[in-house]
Amino acid sequence: MEKDVFRCVECHEKATELHRDYSNGILKITICESCQKPVDKYIEYDPVIILIDAILCKTQAFRHILFNTKLNIHWKLCVFCLLCEAYLRWSHLHGSEQSGDPADIIRYAKEWEFYSMFGLAALELLAFCGGVLCFLWVAVRCVRGGALELSLLLRALLLSCYGKILLIPAVIWEHDYSPLCLGLIKLLVLTSNSQAVRVILNSSRRLSLTAVGFGLLAETLVAHICRTVPWSVQDLLAF
Question: What is the rounded CA–CA span in Å between residue 154 and residue 174?
């Protein structure tokens, strides 16, 4: 990492290093000049502990992951979660069908419907991220005149969607998921999104919640428009 990119997990102040390497393999954690606490206590923690703290939406864990690590799996995580969500939507769409027709056109139609579910999930995620970033651009850049790193915010939003991994058990075991279960997963994801925005901007909880709410509104609007579009995969295959 380059100089001055680390952040204290306690007070958000910049730091030039996380630890100092002395002779004989002795490491000493750097103390923050602002709060007089270790810059990043998590460098000594087991990854499982860090994961638990991230699931609990602790600010220190989010700062460690977003600022003090080289974790660049956000695009892979995004695609993986979209695949799980697309499969759940597709299986819900055809779960009640008991057709014994082995014709290739049937399998072809269902396959393309899976792709359409993936595209719909990706479009909704794009609308959500776009809504959040547009709101923050207006609120922070235009109104307050502050700096805004869109790439860092986008990375934080995608990484904070880790809660969608809870969809994996439904994919593996073909569980008959309930609206309550999906609602709790959605709540966890939105809470993590809000915490990620708050950590990146070091802002108030009100601003982050408003930004996430604006993104959710954009996602809901896009989903409603897609549901009301008068076409389907079967209509496309008919041509």
Answer: 31
